[in-house]
Structure formats: C-alpha cells, structure tokens
Amino acid sequence: MWLSLILVICSDPGISLYRFNKPPDSPIFIDIAPTTQSSAKNPVVRDIESRLDNPEKYNDLITYVHEGTHSINSAYRNKYGGRNNALYELNGKLAVALEPSITLRLVAESVPGVLRGSKYYLYMQQQQKYWNDRPLYIFDEWVAYLNGLEVAVTGSAPNNRDISKDIEATAEFFVYAAVLCEQSYTKYMNGRELRQVQAIMFWHTRRMLMLLHKCRKRGYDCSKADKILLTFRKSLFCIQLRIFTSAFLGKQWCKINMGF
Fold first, then answer.
1. Category of 35 on φ-ψ map: left (φ > 0), alpha (ψ -120 to 50) or beta
2. Residue pLDDT, tens place only, 119-133
3. Most buried residue, 62, 65, 117, 136, by CB count within 10 Å?
4. How far apart are CA 166 and CA 41, in angstroms?
C-alpha cells in the first residue's frame, strides 16, 4: 500500500518541487548571412552550403548537412569564445548559450539505464575525452541530427541510407538533452542564461516532434524513436526525469504534446 502511494506521488508531474517560468517560444537568435553561393536543389542543403567556406564532400546529403552544421557551430563557437557554444538552427538563425559548470561524464552517468540508446557509448562516453567540460555538446549533436533529418523531409532520402537511425537519434538526443538540463539548471547564476538553455530545449523538442510527424507521413520507420519516447513517458525508472522535463518545458504543453 505504501509503495503504491509513493509511486503515485512520485509519478504525478503536478507534484513537483521544480518551479520554472514558461519557456520562451524561441531562443534569442543571432542572424547570420550566407557567405557564399550555393546551387544545391534541396533548400536545407543550400542553406547549410551557403554558410560554409570550404565544405567537405560526403556520400549523402544528410551526412553533408549534419557535418556542415557542426562546421558552422564550430566557427561561431570559436568566434564568440569563452564558455559560449553556438547552434545553427537553419534559416540564418544561430543560438548562442553559455556552458554550465558540469561535465559530460556527469550527464552520461545520470541517464537512466533504460534510456541509454544505441548512440550512448559513442556520444556520451567516448566523446568525454574531447567534450567533457562542454556538455552543451549534446545540443550540438542534437541540432546536427535535426538539420540532417530536415533533408529527408524536404526532398528524396538517400537510397543507401537507413533513415530510421537518423530518426532514432533525434529522440535519443532529446533524452540526453533533458538529463543535461536537469543536471545543469542550478548552475546558471544568471536567469537569462538559463532561459536561453530552456528555450533551446523547447525549440529542439518541438522540431523533433514536427520532424517525426513529417517522417511518418512519408512512410519512414519511426518505431525506434517511438520506443524511446514511450519508455520516457512510461518507465518507472524515468519518473524524476519526467517530472523535471514537464516543469522545464511546461506541464500543460508536455501533457498535450508529449503524453506525460
């Protein structure tokens, strides 16, 4: 009886010690203009390519956009310097956010075991040797996957590519980003800095949901992504993370759009 009562209390997002303002509709963006001409037919490829001075060539357009996003992020991360990270969100929009004083290792260790997906070892463990003091690297990877998947819903998907893995990654990085926010929100001394991270999380989550919707309409296999999100919604091992995420993104919004 007592165990059941505890589970009911802990699983109710309305019973929460977290108090956040409603997230902004969008991050504070910096407009960045194209630096070169692009003749690419796909608008997403054209968007990325026109902001790359020396683009590398890849076998397919999704990888091209994914890696091109990393290149743009890196260029502006270096430009703004310090503890700033930069995320290119397409259409000339760049979001800049301050790194929290936590480690990628802490975030990785805090991910519930049931939510450690196929990319966990590579991105959350192996990359610690490069990005351990830059945990917003998780956002960097997430936006690269989101931008890459935009290619598949605005044109023809590459014949030799398993799109389901890219779709899965957008959901998997939602999980890792939620853990990142949960572990770092107390580290932001300036309210504006936390609001920017909150806004990026909200923006990326909505992009993920819209892309999943478009992928389903095109008949792409979304089953792996759906399984991740179902586990996030239902597993008893994710109760605390759900409560935090509901408060961080807005309880009513999460109830309507995320199902928790």
1. alpha
2. 999 999 999 999 999
3. 65
4. 21
Per-residue model confidence (pLDDT) at position 189: 78
**Residue 114 in contact with residue 231, Cβ under 8 Å?**
yes
3-state secondary structure (DSSP) of residue 24: coil
CB contact at 8 A, 69 and 148:
yes
pLDDT in tens, 49-107: 999 988 888 889 999 999 999 999 999 999 999 999 999 999 999 999 999 999 999 99
Q: Where are the domains of the chain?
A: 21-257
Report yes or no: 151 and 42 within 8 Å, Cβ to Cβ.
yes
Residue 209's pLDDT is what? Answer: 98
Q: What three-state secondary structure class fits 103?
A: coil
| Sheet architecture: strand order including 29-31 | 29-31, 93-98, 84-88
Q: For residues 247 and 23, give the distance between their C-alpha atoms in angstroms, rounded to a whole number.
A: 10
Question: Length of the chain in residues, anyone?
Answer: 260
